[in-house]
Hints:
Number of strands: 0
Shape: globular
Order of helices and strands: HH
Largest sheet: none
Strand content: under 5%
Number of helices: 2
Distance between the termini: 22 Å
Structural class: mainly alpha
Low-confidence stretches: none
Mean pLDDT: 76
Amino acid sequence: MDHQGVLYTKNYPDHKTLDTFNIHYVSVLNKILNLDPKIDIVISSDWKQWVTLPEMKDFYVGKQ
């Protein structure tokens, strides 16, 4: 899954604030993930240089 341009819709990287992810799309993603507990997200991104794994988890669960 590519989050750049899909869940993350800003034109510039602002990895420090949760509002950079579109909350509607994050909500849709979470509905899909809740359909089957065996579904996992695999993140392969250079964001790992700026964002910790716990911070990235916050993006995907939609914490604001």
